[in-house]
Amino acid sequence: MTQAAVPTPTTSPVRSDRDPFARLDWVLLAALALVWGSSFLLMAVGLEALHPGLVTWLRVASGAATLLVLRRRRVEIDRADRRTIALLAVIWVAIPFTLFPIAEQHVNSSVAGILNGAMPIWAALLGGLFFGRPPRGPQRIGLVVGFVGMAVVSTASTSAGGSTALFGIVLVLVATMLYGWSVNLLAPLQQRHGAVPVMTRLLVQATAWTAPFGLYAVPRSRFEVVPVAATLVLGVVGTGAAFVMMGTLTGRVGGPRASYVTYVIPVVAVALGVVVLGDRVHPAAVLGVSLVIAGAAAASRREA
User: Fold this and answer.
1) Residue 118 gets which letter from DSSP?
2) Measured by CB atoms within 10 angstroms of the end CB, which terminus of the chain is less buried, N or C?
3) Is 33:268 a contact under the CB 8 Å cutoff?
């Protein structure tokens, strides 16, 4: 009587966040580019009747409400990670979301979308300096090319708009620096707790942080259907759903590489700004777009 052979169990290799992009990573990146590329247009429409403070507050609050509906269970988060989430509520949401609407009063939505492409540069620089994740190989080339592109865009936009445009550019670049810091903090949180629990807690706290500016803005706003609707879409889709997608992508490929989604955002932002709002883009800014997009291919490569 022979004994049946027992199959030897096999284990599939665990995917590393330094591996090449998988199909789902590309899907998440493309979806985020479309959603966040449209956010600058939606923001501009909202500002036609709403004060910047109310645009920020409605955006954050509706995004938080969306995730509270989507959340299926409560996840316990340790004290150290709760402190990090509280910090992210300020530096990833409250401050940048306040700066962008103010900036779009001085630069158009296309320029704001282009300058948003500075985020991967900050993410890579801060990741290398403070998080032990310096850019390697082709990513270094993408970092340099992207920096040159941001310089070209900033110079072209400043020459066209003067000191007023310069003020808006500075606000956007400060916001993108905070974004770059944030994605480096986000990756381990998402890996430990999942995107929805982290983002829900983060946006609820950010709603409280932005409430004073929002309440201040209420009597200074006109409540018209289209601007309010645009702002709510910006919150539900461009904040609630998009934050979950970004958290998932960051956990899968790491903070610096996930931030390269912003290399694609300027294309969407510029196209919508020109077609829908009639924005005028300096020819040099188009060159800048081409330069920053050149780093996207390098971001998808396997990290050394």
Assistant:
1) G
2) N
3) yes
